[in-house]
Design a protein that fits this description.
The termini are far apart. This protein is about 80% helix and about 0% strand. By secondary structure, the protein is mostly helical. α1 runs parallel beside α5. The chain folds into two domains: about 290 residues, no CATH class; about 90 residues.
């Protein structure tokens, strides 16, 4: 049975920590495609197959996670773990979602330091990427129907998509959306609205407070604090992370070259799980194993803290008509941004007739059958490897 909005008032009693650990470890092993792909896989596994949460509640939770700094897909995983089985699941679910990416990137970092380059992975990505696009398209189809409830919300989603392709940053689009949504909510609720938004504004103030850091020689402490700052103030995708890493590690600290930075982001993109795990790669090539572990802890720790702060506010946000209007417009804009990013990803993934057919077939299968997305991904890997073998 699907959960009702009341299930988000606190941890439900029928979930187990072991169940949460199993699900998010598997998702962490297979969640390619950045935030869009990860959210799509979570939605298929937890909304469609396991029915932990309703479509609308999942969309609301993802929308709220987009309002706080850090990787929104990882924060959604942390929040879903907490909703399912309480505090232990909040920590374990989030950690196991990140763990596969960290381990894979540690291995790539070792190879990179030893040989000076990353191993070729294009054969695997050739078969995986079209499947990821199909999974995202399936999620957009269903989540979009839940998010776009009227013409105004459709206009908000289209506006976000158009602004993205006009070169406006995701941060500015989300800020504009938040301001618009807050204005609508304020008009509906009046004087009480600023109090309801105070925790969000407090988090924003914390971001600003963490932005200053002085240039110093390399140290593990500075490495950890720099990534802690980035995790506490960064919004958006791995491309946004690229800007933060460049400003700190290339321009200010001068611990990385341009090429090392790009290779770090590539490591996060070619492995499953959050692209923010690129921090593991940076930590390894600058500070070895200890640097990798501290960098990973630093960039993800704020997400656990922010989710723990914000999650208790979810019922209040969902129960208020003003907050409902606020969430509706955030959700619609988020769908627009997700569609825009997916279009860009699709242009890189659908590169020939084989990948186009693979994506189309996968989409039809996903729409018609409640099949585990992991099986579709593995089939895509096998098909891609076979195709490359036959054509070379």
């Amino acid at each position: 049975m699907s959960s009702s909005p009341e299930n988000l008032e606190g941890p439900v009693k029928h979930g187990t920590v072991r169940e949460v650990a199993s699900v998010f470890l598997r998702l962490g092993l297979l969640a390619f495609g950045g935030a869009a792909g990860q959210i799509a896989m979570m939605r298929r596994e937890l909304v469609q197959r396991r029915k932990w949460i309703s479509e609308e509640d999942f969309l609301d939770l993802f929308g709220i996670m987009n309002l706080i700094p850090g990787p929104s897909a990882t924060e959604t995983a942390i929040a879903l773990g907490y909703a399912r089985a309480g505090w232990p699941a909040l920590i374990l679910g989030g950690c196991l979602f990140v763990l596969p990416a960290m381990v894979c990137i540690l291995a790539l970092g070792w190879v990179y330091v030893r040989f000076g380059e990353l191993p070729a992975v294009q054969v695997v990505l050739y078969g995986v990427n079209p499947i990821v696009i199909a999974i995202i398209a399936d999620a957009l189809w269903s989540l979009g129907r839940a998010a776009i409830k009227n013409g105004w919300l459709a206009l908000s989603g289209v506006a976000a998509l158009v602004l993205y392709f006009r070169g406006i940053s995701i941060e500015l689009i989300l800020i504009a959306t938040v301001v618009l949504a807050a204005g609508i909510a304020f008009a509906r609720r009046g004087k009480n609205q600023p109090r309801a938004m105070a925790p969000m504004l407090g988090i924003a103030a914390a971001q600003a407070a963490g932005a200053a850091a002085a240039a110093v020689p390399f140290s593990l402490t500075r490495l950890f604090l720099t990534f802690l700052k980035i995790g506490a103030i960064s919004y958006g995708s791995g491309y946004v992370l690229l800007a933060f890493l460049h400003a700190d590690f290339v321009t200010r600290l001068r611990w990385l070259t341009e090429k090392q930075l790009l290779d770090s982001i590539a490591a996060g993109q070619i492995t499953p799980g959050p692209v923010f795990a690129s921090a593991t790669f940076v930590g390894y090539i600058t500070g070895g194993l200890n640097g990798a572990l501290l960098a990973t802890l630093g960039i993800f720790l704020p997400s656990f803290v922010f989710v723990a702060i914000v999650f208790p506010l979810v019922p209040k946000l969902k129960g208020s008509p003003a907050a409902r209007a606020f969430l509706d417009i955030i959700n619609a804009s988020t769908m627009g941004l997700m569609a825009a990013v997916s279009w860009q990803m699709g242009r890189g993934a659908i590169i020939d007739a084989f990948t186009a057919v693979e994506a189309l077939v996968a989409f039809v299968i996903l729409r018609r059958y409640q099949i585990n997305a992991a099986l579709v991904i593995m089939a895509g890997v096998a098909a891609g490897v076979a195709m490359k073998f036959l054509t070379h």
